[in-house]
Write a structure and sequence with these properties.
The chain is of the alpha/beta class. The chain is built from ten helices and twelve strands. It folds into three domains: about 70 residues, Winged helix-like DNA-binding domain superfamily/Winged helix DNA-binding domain (Arc Repressor Mutant, subunit A), CATH 1.10.10.10; about 120 residues, 3-Layer(aba) Sandwich (D-Maltodextrin-Binding Protein, domain 2); about 100 residues, D-Maltodextrin-Binding Protein, domain 2. Helix content is about 40%, strand content about 20%. The strands form three sheets. Strands 3, 4, 5, 6, 9, 10, 11 and 12 form an eight-stranded mixed sheet that branches. Strands 1-2 form a two-stranded antiparallel sheet. The protein starts with 11 loop residues before the first helix and ends in a 10-residue tail after the last strand.
């Protein structure tokens, strides 16, 4: 018995409509965002339901919710659209002389401070192309590489990180500096190692970053520290430090301008040197376009402020 061919009415446009309806939980708002009429949105959803033989949405109060089948179809639709956009980026840079597209996922500090100058330099050499930096947590960035939403990522990786399906290449070691308010009541211009555990700390809620910092502290004989605030972005952490709510470990790229303005102060830590390794991560089966490969090479060949050539391997324990 011959299997029936895939229905040509299951178009990418219909899948995109479903994704937007699911995200906004409203046909009206989806129509506004997609710049089409409400009847067209409804027709696309009904067409999908007819072709797949299952109800995908249901009314819930004044909004729209997905059925169980709708949730399964949404996950599939998101994967199809993500891989389609990935293919479009690869084809856009298929010719070495043509315009290219690249999406780079990055952890907070790398994406906010290290990568922007490098991408700007790359743009000046390749003004026809387009680069997008997506800043998120290391785990979210890693998943975006796996799904195809990003072409590669620049992230920190915990020693026990699951890297199934991806390849992680060592990039840089990024120094960690202890930083305080200029006239902090908690600490002077330097602090001995045994006094660090008594200081109030501003930290990140990124599990990977915390694991790496805590591991290096333990390796230096500092069993624990007193964290008073967990803030998601370095700019938020700097605000708390400026208000002298505590001290914080920062990468040099994040605080160079603050040091020059006198807004923040480096606290010297005799006998304690800490650094965080950064990696560039690609999916194992990913075929980078010439444009994407050129961007990756440009990043890997650079040594931005506060980083040094990578030493050691991912398997080297930090705690």
């Amino acid at each position: 018995m011959l299997m029936r061919g895939f229905d040509s009415n299951l178009t990418l446009q219909k899948l995109e409509v479903l994704c937007v309806v699911a995200e906004l939980q409203s046909i009206t708002r989806a129509a506004d965002q997609l710049c089409i009429s409400q009847p067209v949105v409804t027709a696309h959803i009904r067409s999908l339901e007819e072709k797949l033989g299952a109800a995908l949405i249901r009314r819930e109060g004044r909004g729209i919710a997905l059925t169980e089948s709708g949730s399964r179809v949404l996950k599939w639709a998101q994967g199809v659209l993500t891989r389609t956009r990935e293919l479009q980026r690869e084809l856009a840079g298929a010719e070495a002389t043509g315009p290219g597209r690249a999406v780079v996922a990055a952890s907070m500090s790398a994406g906010s401070y290290l990568l922007p100058p490098l991408v700007c330099d790359f743009y000046l050499q390749n003004p026809e192309g387009r680069v997008q930096i997506v800043v998120s947590t290391p785990l979210a960035a890693l998943e975006s590489v796996r799904s195809g939403a990003a072409d590669f990522a620049v992230i920190t990786i915990s020693p026990n990180q699951n890297l199934e399906g991806v390849a992680a290449e060592p990039l840089w070691n990024e120094t960690l500096l202890l930083v305080s308010a200029p006239q902090s009541k908690w600490v002077g211009e330097s602090v001995e190692r045994d006094a660090i555990s008594r200081l109030p700390f501003i930290s990140t809620y990124s599990l990977v970053a915390q694991q790496l910092e805590e591991g290096q502290l333990r390796a230096n004989g500092i069993a624990s520290r007193h964290i008073v605030l967990e803030l998601g972005h370095p700019e938020a952490q700097k605000e708390a430090v400026r208000r002298d709510l505590g001290v914080c470990f920062f990468r040099p790229s994040a605080v160079a301008n603050d040091f020059s303005r006198g807004d923040l102060r480096r606290v010297h830590t005799p006998g304690l040197e800490m650094s965080i390794p950064l990696y560039i991560v690609c999916r194992n089966d990913k075929e980078l376009s010439p444009f994407q490969l050129a961007l990756k090479t440009h990043i890997m060949s650079a040594l931005p402020l506060g980083v040094s050539a990578f030493e050691g391997t991912r398997d080297t324990p930090v705690d």
